[in-house]
């Protein structure tokens, strides 16, 4: 369904709140959206009406929980989406790229249908868009759910992806292409050859296109064709410039990237719980757009879960799980660890005859796992909720089963190792506390396998390692400001912010993760 149909669905089912005039895309709207997201299915999506000068309404929290996203995709829940993928793969080869090719649909492009209203840059500027300032530490205003469309002349096809867009002035924005992404590769090729690169920014697209734009597909698979498959060909396509775009898109900005022109992107409070560092990004020059009458666009609020990005991650998991099971005989199941979903942190449940070596060889060849920061292998994990997965694994792993290989943290949790608190570990706690570390053993510590330590930066991990005698598997060092924070916040910060090369200290019986070198959110 298109975004207007989705908003009408939310309104009729009591899941939408149209905000009063004092709620805006700058700080107050995102702050209220976070509050709604924490209420899960009890929280409502927010429809922020345009204030004076804005050209569009803004929807925040539209994908606030998995059922709501599934409804936007035309299914009852994400299990139904997963089953649809599984049924489609029944006749597919057990080969990653060939299996993916089954999840594509090429709907003919509509060329004779009336287009929306065209507007030149002389009559419309990007300042009028309801761009967001999500956090007081943000250094500017951002479009957070714009689909960036680039034509790859080398491969003669169109690429779409969701990249962060900062509005700088009436006709200029920067686009933050993630290092290593397909978009970054296309832009780099164009910059190196001195060619101007046509760009379209699609706002208010159907949910199927948003999901397709965030799904890590093989480079030979078209995300446009995946979006058509996800929508059962209900989202009609039209041509605009060199691009093919959904007919129901609310606003499409057309422009180009001049070769060699960059500008500094301001700090953005992202998933790590801290603002990003200023970074040079390529400049988008706005030329013209189309706009529907009374347009409506979507945005997301980033930060610690729950966020809509984590809900989209659940949908991506529903697509990838049957693909991985179909193509690798060692994989029984996969689960994204939501605290590390931005970095592809994944638990891989192995089949009884499966091996870590076979599964790891498969995963390292395919996205998103080829770039994952954390891969955890286990057996018989069924029935464990996402919230408890990481804690459940602590009862199964020895420190020596944790390895850093090719910039990835690999954890072998297939065993059933257990350890009760011994006199030796009690002595370790006392020694650490004498050195200035306040220690806590959480209830979820799985028989004291996890110790939380709070200290300032003067306490050195190697000194703590030297006095350790026995006991805990993992010492998670945090700043004292987090003393009363919940455990999931601490694990979230550790996964997203530590350096695998500088902040992890490992011995035979102790693993120290130093998560103190980060800005408190």
UniProtKB/TrEMBL annotation:
Alphabetized UniProt keyword annotations: Lyase
Entry-linked Pfam families: UbiD
Residues forming the 3-octaprenyl-4-hydroxybenzoate carboxy-lyase-like Rift-related domain are 118-304
Q: Which molecular-function annotations from GO does this UniProt entry contain?
A: 4-hydroxy-3-polyprenylbenzoate decarboxylase activity
| Known EC number | 4.1.1.98
Q: Which domain of life is it from?
A: Bacteria
Q: Name one GO cellular component term.
A: cytoplasm
State the InterPro entries in the record.
UbiD (IPR002830), UbiD_Rift_dom (IPR048304)
Q: What is this protein's record name?
A: 4-hydroxy-3-polyprenylbenzoate decarboxylase
């Amino acid at each position: 369904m298109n975004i207007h149909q989705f908003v009408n669905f939310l309104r009729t089912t009591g899941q939408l709140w149209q905000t009063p005039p004092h709620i805006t895309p700058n700080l107050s709207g995102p702050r209220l959206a976070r509050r709604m997201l924490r209420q899960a299915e009890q929280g409502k999506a927010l429809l922020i009406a345009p204030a004076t000068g804005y050209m569009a309404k803004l929807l925040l929290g539209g994908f606030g929980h998995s059922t709501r996203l599934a409804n936007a995709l035309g299914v009852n829940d994400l299990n139904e989406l997963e089953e649809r993928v599984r049924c489609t793969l029944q006749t597919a080869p057990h080969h990653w790229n060939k299996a993916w090719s089954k999840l594509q649909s090429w709907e003919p492009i509509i060329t004779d249908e009336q287009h929306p209203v065209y507007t030149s840059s002389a009559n419309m500027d990007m300042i009028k868009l309801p761009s967001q300032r999500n956090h007081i530490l943000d250094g500017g205003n951002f479009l957070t759910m714009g689909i960036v469309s680039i034509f790859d002349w080398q491969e003669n096809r169109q690429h779409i992806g969701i990249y962060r867009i900062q509005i700088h002035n009436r006709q200029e924005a920067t686009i933050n292409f993630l290092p290593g992404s397909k978009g970054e590769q296309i832009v780099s090729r164009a910059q190196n050859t001195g060619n101007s690169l046509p760009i379209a920014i699609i706002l208010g697209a159907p949910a199927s296109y948003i999901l397709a734009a965030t799904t890590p597909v093989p480079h030979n698979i078209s995300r446009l064709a995946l979006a058509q498959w996800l929508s059962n060909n209900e989202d009609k396509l039209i041509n605009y410039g060199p691009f093919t775009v959904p007919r129901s898109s609310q606003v499409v900005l057309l422009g180009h990237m001049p070769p060699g022109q960059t500008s500094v992107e301001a700090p953005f409070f992202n998933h790590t719980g801290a603002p990003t560092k200023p970074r040079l990004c390529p400049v988008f020059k706005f030329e013209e757009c189309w706009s529907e009458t009374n347009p409506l666009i979507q945005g997301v609020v980033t930060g610690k879960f729950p966020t809509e990005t984590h809900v989209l991650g659940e949908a991506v998991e529903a697509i990838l799980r049957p693909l991985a099971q179909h193509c690798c005989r060692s994989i029984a199941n996969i689960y994204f660890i939501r605290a590390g979903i931005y970095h592809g942190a994944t638990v891989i449940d192995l089949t009884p005859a499966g091996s870590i070596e076979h599964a790891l060889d498969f995963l390292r060849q395919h996205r998103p796992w080829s770039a994952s920061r954390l891969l955890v292998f286990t057996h018989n994990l069924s029935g464990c909720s996402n919230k408890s997965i990481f804690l459940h694994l602590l009862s199964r792993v020895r420190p020596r089963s944790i390895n850093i290989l090719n910039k990835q943290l690999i954890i072998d949790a297939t065993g059933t190792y257990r350890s009760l608190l011994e006199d030796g570990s009690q002595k370790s706690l006392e020694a650490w506390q004498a050195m200035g570390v306040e220690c806590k053993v959480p209830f979820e510590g799985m028989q004291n396998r996890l110790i939380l330590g709070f200290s300032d930066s003067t306490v050195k991990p190697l000194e703590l390692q030297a006095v350790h005698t026995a006991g805990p598997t993992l010492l998670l060092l945090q700043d004292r400001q987090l003393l009363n924070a919940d455990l999931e916040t601490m694990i979230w910060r550790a996964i997203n912010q530590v350096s695998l090369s500088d902040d992890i200290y490992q011995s035979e019986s102790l693993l120290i993760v130093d998560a103190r070198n980060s800005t408190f959110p």
